[in-house]
Amino acid sequence: MSASAFLPAAVNFRPLMFKLNVSSKFVRHCRRHQRFSTSRSLNADSYEVVVVGGGAGGASLSNIFARKSKSVAVIEPNPEHYYQPLWTLVGAGIMNFGKSARPMAAVLPKRATWVKDKVAEFNPKDNTVTTEGGKQIKYEYLIVGPGIQLNYNQIKGLPEAFETPGVGSNYSKLYVGKTTEALQRFNGGDALFTFPNTPIKCAGAPQKIMYLADALWTKNGVRSKSQLHYNTSLGVIFGVKKYADVLTEITRQRNLNVNFKRNLIEVKPDTQEAVFEILDSSETPKETVTAHYDFLHVVPPMSAPDCVRNNKDIVDAAGWLDVDKDTLQHKKFANIFGIGDCTNLPTSKTAAAVACQIGIVKRNLLQVMAGDKPTSVYNGYTSCPIVTGNQKCIFAEFDYNAQPMETFPFNQAKERRSMYIMKKDIIPYVYFHVMLKGYWEGPGIIRKMFRLGMA
Ligand SMILES: Cc1cc2nc3c(=O)[nH]c(=O)nc-3n(C[C@H](O)[C@H](O)[C@H](O)COP(=O)(O)OP(=O)(O)OC[C@H]3O[C@@H](n4cnc5c(N)ncnc54)[C@H](O)[C@@H]3O)c2cc1C
Prior knowledge:
Layout: H1 14-20, H2 24-32, E1 46-52, H3 56-68, E2 72-75, E3 80-82, H4 87-91, E4 101-103, H5 104-107, E5 113-115, E6 119-123, E7 128-131, E8 136-144, E9 149-150, E10 167-168, H6 176-185, E11 189-195, H7 205-219, E12 226-232, H8 241-253, E13 256-259, E14 262-268, E15 273-278, E16 288-292, E17 295-297, E18 302-303, H9 306-309, E19 336-338, H10 351-369, E20 382-389, E21 392-398, H11 417-435, H12 444-450
Parallel strand pairs: 1-2, 1-8, 2-5, 8-19, 10-17, 11-12, 11-17, 12-13
Antiparallel strand pairs: 3-4, 6-7, 7-8, 9-18, 14-15, 15-16, 20-21
Helix pairs in contact: 3-10
Bound molecules: flavin-adenine dinucleotide (FAD).
């Protein structure tokens, strides 16, 4: 850390300089380079901007505010950052896990202080957060982006069943490799794919792995002796009609059996059985149905992280960070903004949505810091590249009203190889090289270009 980090502008350093034999030229040099030094402030644990989480939203916004504010701290416990959208392809055995990971130090800004700890508590009334390590960190402005929590333990028999063959989950770095193993050792029989009864991140991912399994097993000859079942707690295959129609047709043509309103509640690895609650059952308790599996892909129930949902001051009734859906500013605390999966924004939780939210939080927080009201409005843009088979993808993009908001001047509901390349190669490149550095706010500008500037 450079000495200049400790030099407040208003202090007279002459007596101290004399004692320490420091030249005034050196002090001027430190002042000039102050903004390039590490951003630790005078008080060791007090910062102008604190960012919780170094994920898709947190890393991008900390890079932006490291350039625009006096001091920034990022609180993030993990030594690695993951681009999770690649885990669909990792689980399917198409990509190596390593391609999705970067050292956290490489994605966080050098001009911010990285607090390698987890936030345990938010104390919004005194503008502090407390970490699990017991540190109190003070902020003037807070950006909350700790993502979503995977609650595997809410399903009886998990996570133990991951220790048995045939069970995997693309949603966790711990179990995505199990999906690959299970897909490859599958030799026909019953394959089950689940979608839980909570909001989740990337609502397309639970079915993407089914299409990739279908393609793989067709190629290696086991598809003809297997039955594939997609058991979803939802009542539709996808929330946007345009894409749902196409997906329904794909499942029909490929003989993929879709069961609606089925929620996984138990896995019995000894007998290779999965128990589903029938959500539209009129009985109390609800009726259940038990299905045998030879392959099981589990998507766990999810919630906001405990540190968020346990603080009633900052969450809505369902436990999500309670932000204004237009401005992303917290509804009660004007110096707090939310980003990404932990929020109650009524849109599909994706990294693509985060990209658009970055621009909104950037502009609105800068306005608040300048003493103005936030005026940038988020339209709920989100996107889900649904890989539907070997090098095939339909590219769903839509807004808060579940209306398609497509970037390209062709029908994105059609399966295309170009959109598969977009998902596998182009978007990850943009994510690591542009978005995380704070220079990508979603494809709005490209969409406009294709429409010659028209809305
Ligand atoms: C299998 C899969 C497929 C997906 N496919 C797509 C896709 O095709 N397209 C797409 O756009 N999106 C996709 N997503 C979703 C996308 O990855 C997330 O929506 C996105 O990463 C959310 O960003 P975030 O910043 O909110 O959270 P994250 O990126 O998850 O980051 C949260 C960060 O907060 C940290 N953290 C957690 N708790 C704390 C705490 N208490 N204190 C401090 N830090 C904490 C975590 O370590 C993490 O680094 C997919 C996700 C998965 C799992």
